[in-house]
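Slide 14.
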Amino acid sequence: MKPRTLERMQHFTGKVCSIISASMNRSFDEQISREHFVVYVQEITVDGVWGTHPYNEDLMSFFAMEHIISIHQEIELNPENPEHAKMLKEYEDRTGAKATPDIKGTPKETPPDSQEEPDGGVTFVDIDSLEELAENTKRTFDAQEILTK
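Slide 15: predicted structure.
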């Protein structure tokens, strides 16, 4: 990995992100996928990404860098925020489905000295598109790798 890439990836530290990784021989349903591959990023090193469950800091995850295909920052929505409520309403109107939290648990507390605005909201992830996005990203990386050899 190039130093500039690692430097730019630091943007994700302290944020809720989806981690798309190489295929594994274990299948997960949609809910479990959200709970395993959406993390509150704690640290990004040349070795990989360390993260915790967005609502339970006791549950730690590690994704080895050589298995990461992509990382995506997610939006934490708070239904009590009028702007977020409008987004949720538009989603419900468009899909006909009730918007529900993607991850079970209690929203994390934002430390008072944090520079992030406390939104205490619900993590909302468009899971339907993630598998297709992961495949497309992998094809792009594979093509780039062939071109640089």
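Speaker note: The chain has a mean pLDDT of 77.
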